[in-house]
Amino acid sequence: DGGITQSPKYLFRKEGQNVTLSCEQNLNHDAMYWYRQDPGQGLRLIYYSQIVNDFQKGDIAEGYSVSREKKESFPLTVTSAQKNPTAFYLCASRSRDRGLDGELFFGEGSRLTVL
Amino acid sequence: AQTVTQSQPEMSVQEAETVTLSCTYDTSESDYYLFWYKQPPSRQMILVIRQEAYKQQNATENRFSVNFQKAAKSFSLKISDSQLGDAAMYFCAYRTPYSGGGADGLTFGKGTHLIIQP
């Protein structure tokens, strides 16, 4: 079945360490996104990529980095510069062929806790 | 910047009853798309329904329907015959029109926690 796989599902990190969250999709979607979810805050866009080897900052990109070397993969690195990294992270993808009404398909998320 | 507001942090409804979740948004665009997503306890986001701004007819998907009031910038979700499986967080979202350089993501509201009482 096609879908989006995020790993790991739970991750613990010590302060000062970088950590990378994996996101892989086999939907053949061009566009991929990373969102952060905090209690009472909804979802906020971190980074997005519309095509391989290109990505753009979202609303809260500071302290995060991404790469898009392959169409199916869009890993997110949470760096030590991120002041409050404990959160739930959601990866999503979209087929650009569907136009603006194309829905986002989401992974199951990764819960990052900084100790 | 576009904003999406969900004024009801939590709603409660008896099983089999009807409930309406409210959503308002702020935009200067005339063409856009609106979505309602459901996030059950598993935390995976699932699309419930979508609405194109240029369509006057309200979207319907089985027990789910919307009341889209473009002039008022309102996009409420009505759930009929509520079921226990409807219990979840519901997020209203707006799509920023892609104009070659703008953000190509969804802007989400903060969500409404829907409780279904048996």
Secondary-structure map:
The complex is a heterodimer of chains A (115) and B (118).
Chain A lengths: L3 E4 L2 E4 L5 E7 L5 E8 L3 E10 L2 E4 L6 E3 L9 E3 L8 E8 L10 E2 L3 E5 L1
Parallel strand pairs in A: 2-11
Antiparallel strand pairs in A: 1-3, 3-8, 4-5, 4-9, 5-6, 7-8, 9-10, 9-11
Chain B lengths: L2 E3 L4 E5 L4 E3 L2 E3 L6 E7 L6 E7 L7 E2 L2 E6 L4 E6 L8 E8 L10 E3 L3 E6 L1
Parallel strand pairs in B: 2-12
Antiparallel strand pairs in B: 1-4, 3-9, 5-6, 5-10, 7-8, 8-9, 10-11, 10-12
How would you describe what is shown here?
The complex is a heterodimer of chains A (115) and B (118). Chain A is mainly beta. Chain A is 0% helix and 50% strand. Chain A has strands at residues 4-7, 10-13, 19-25, 31-38, 42-51, 54-57, 64-66, 76-78, 87-94, 105-106, 110-114. In chain A, strands 2, 4, 5, 6, 9, 10 and 11 form a seven-stranded mixed sheet that branches. Chain B is an all-beta fold and 118 residues long. In chain B, a hairpin with a 4-residue loop joins strand 8 and strand 9 (74-79). The radius of gyration of chain B is 14 Å and the shape is globular. Chain B starts with a strand and ends with a strand.
Biggest sheet character of chain A: 7 strands, mixed
Put simply, the count of helices of chain A is 0
Unreliable residue stretches of chain A:
none
Low-confidence stretches of chain B: none
Number of strands of chain A: 11
Radius of gyration of chain B: 14 Å
SSE series of chain A? EEEEEEEEEEE
Globular, elongated, flat, extended or rod-shaped: what is the shape of chain B? globular
- How is the main sheet of chain B built? 6 strands, mixed
**Average residue-wise pLDDT of chain A:** 91
Percent in helix of chain A: under 10%
Distance between the termini of chain A: 36 Å
Portion of residues in beta strands of chain B equals over 45%
- Which structural class is indicated by helix and strand composition of chain B? mainly beta
* Helicity of chain B, as a percent range: under 10%
Secondary structure category of chain A = mainly beta
Distance between the termini of chain B: 41 Å
